[in-house]
Specification:
It contains seven helices and no strands. The protein is mainly α.
Length: 146
Amino acid sequence: MEWENSALGNLFVPDVLTPEQFYDSRRDDSNIRPVKKLMMAILEDALRCFQNNADAKGGPRKRLFSEAEQWLIGEGGEGPFSFETVCETLGIEPQFLHRGLRDWRIQQLAGVSTRRLARRSPVVRSGRISASGRRDAKRTATAHTR
């Protein structure tokens, strides 16, 4: 245990503990996993609102853009769902994302064609979602039994 207090021991002790190190993926994070999913959904929604409404001139789309811009690029913010906290919990460097969003906005204002986030649905549909055929058959069967 003497090596822990020596110069060699100090080489292996970090000065700063990052959120990624704190929420190490090797650790069982089953308790925080739903919160991380919620944070990811919030971040994705903000990015989608920012990009898809950037060209809005007024109305509700302009309000969505302004709110997303304030949350994504605005300075400060406190609480468990602030931009910085969400990014750090998800292992994303907030300043890197800020720079990317600013660059995207500059390109968008300059008229450069840029790719936007597509709407991603968690529901996968295959075929029709309808029970009308079954309902009709059930009604017919009930009518015949009376």
